[in-house]
Design a protein that fits this description.
The protein has about 475 residues and is α/β, with parallel strands linked by helices. The chain has a domain at about 95-405: Metal-dependent hydrolases (TIM Barrel, Alpha-Beta Barrel), CATH 3.20.20.140. The chain has 11 helices and 16 strands. Strands 1, 2, 3, 4, 5, 14, 15 and 16 form an 8-stranded mixed β-sheet that branches. Strands 6-7-8-9-10-11-12-13 form an 8-stranded mixed β-sheet, with helices on both faces. Helix 4 (about 210-240) packs across helix 5.
């Protein structure tokens, strides 16, 4: 983890020791298994690789869940399925880094409202995956929009709302069967109006932005001490070499605390920190908070004023997960501009992402990105499709800590691929076929490959 040269006392105290319980079997581990499928060759498409390249009349070979070939005139295995990509475009599967599918499921009833644990300003102990309903019809709708991976987050009522989870967008009976294997958890934090409004209206802290910052600092001071206690315990255990007597209090580990365990994981760099934050001044404060305690911010979400400190975000290696054009619906969202994402997408070091925060927006992330291209063009900033696709693939994967596995059409990565009927940034573009780990899970021409959740079975669906 890259830290500033000068870090605060708390960062010096916590060190780099991994907590002992982290080596135990993972709780609620992923049981995801790719769907078995034959090799697939998609021939002659325009390919946006996701890392800035555009390749014309190019073939893509998928086999055993991985990308194994990319180029012109690839040899196809004898049992391969051949897909004609002529006149069509290929991209990596789209990734939404800010979704509430499953925790705010459809239909939108109180019974499905599982995104905010509004019982304390800091609820780092809760995990979004424990509220995800796999039957949410929104998952299938997102798949039809080309989304193959998403991060489901708690809501933004709290200063620290809990852990987010990265999911593969597959039909499954349990959330564990959707969990992206090996993906780190995210930590959802929120600054600004939401937490101070929710708790201020109750006459509780925080009531102000001052209270917000005090709340974060108090929580991370506790977490730093908790981490130090575990580090001391591990050091004593190593020194004793397992020879302590059973009745020796020093041989007993500290009591586990789920809230502090999550925060300690963020301090250790094991959990990606994602912060809902609109105003530039507050993002600057959160960067200072990260410096004080020595943690890394993966991304600011929403950030309608991110353009005001785009250079800082680039130099700090922080992504901006942003909307194309949402603004003005509350005071902290008032100073938005349509060029926000384009300005955050600095040529050197910038990491811009288009996110949804919406069960509807997730179905058209490509069109949201197209809005940015259009607005940037009117301002004299020309953005090519091969650059813009990174907002939905490579940069998103980077912020989630899964870039080694997905986000680009790179040999050896997961075969998460979308075949579009044309340029994906056209208003007329639609995914024709969506592959996840090489398996065709959505086909616009085959009703049998247009998933319908169990909840929707027996209900009339208009094609």
């Amino acid at each position: 983890m890259r830290l500033p040269h000068q870090i605060g006392l708390a960062a010096a105290l916590i060190g780099a020791t991994t907590l002992a319980f982290a080596s135990e079997p993972a709780a609620f581990a992923s049981t995801y298994a790719p769907v078995a499928s034959p090799p697939v060759v998609i021939r002659g498409a325009t390919v946006l690789t996701g890392d800035g390249q555009r390749l014309e009349a190019t073939d893509l070979l998928l086999s055993e869940g991985r990308i194994v070939g990319l180029g012109a005139g690839l040899d196809a295995p004898g049992d391969a399925v051949i897909v004609d990509g002529a006149g069509k475009w290929l991209t990596p599967g789209l990734i939404d880094v800010h979704s509430h599918l499953g925790v705010y499921a459809s239909p939108g009833t109180e019974a499905h409202s599982d995104g905010n644990e509004v019982t304390s300003p800091v609820t780092a102990q809760v995990w979004a995956e424990h509220g995800v309903w796999p039957q949410d019809p929104g998952f299938a709708a997102a798949l039809a929009g080309g989304v193959t991976t998403m991060q489901v987050l708690p809501g933004s009522a709290n200063l620290i709302g809990g852990r987010g989870v990265t999911l593969k967008n597959v039909a499954a009976g349990s959330v564990q069967a959707m969990k992206f294997p090996g993906a780190p958890h995210g930590l959802k934090m929120a600054c600004g109006e939401n937490p101070k409004r929710v708790y201020g209206e109750r006459g509780q802290a925080p009531m102000t932005r001052m209270g917000n910052l005090a709340g974060y600092r108090a929580a991370f001071i506790e977490a730093a001490e908790y981490r130090r206690q575990w580090a001391d315990y591990e050091a004593k255990q190593a020194k004793a070499d397992g020879k302590k007597k059973a009745d020796d209090d020093e041989s007993k580990p500290p009591k586990r605390d789920l809230r502090l365990e999550t925060l300690a994981g963020a301090l250790a760099g094991e959990i990606q920190v994602h912060i809902h934050c609109y105003r530039a001044d507050e993002m600057a404060l959160m960067i200072d908070l990260a410096r004080e305690f020595g943690f890394k911010i993966a991304a600011f979400h929403h950030g309608v004023e991110a353009y005001k400190l785009a250079d800082t975000l680039a130099s700090e290696n922080i992504c901006g997960a942003l909307w194309a054009d949402w603004w003005g619906f509350k005071m902290e969202a008032y100073d938005g501009i349509l060029e926000n994402i384009a300005l955050v997408d600095r040529p050197e070091g910038g990491c811009a992402i288009v996110h949804s925060d919406s069960s509807e927006g997730i179905q058209r992330l490509n069109q949201e990105a197209a809005k940015v291209i259009a607005a940037a063009g009117q301002a004299g900033l020309q953005i090519a499709p091969e650059r813009a696709i990174r907002w939905l693939t490579e940069n998103a994967a980077r912020s989630l800590g899964v870039l080694d596995d997905t986000g680009t059409l790179t040999l050896g990565k997961m075969a998460d691929v979308v075949l579009w009927n044309g340029n994906p940034f056209s208003v007329y573009a639609k995914p024709e076929k969506v592959f996840i780990d090489g398996a065709l899970l959505f086909d616009s021409a085959d009703r049998g490959l247009q998933p319908v959740s169990d909840f929707m079975l027996g209900q009339e669906v208009t094609p």
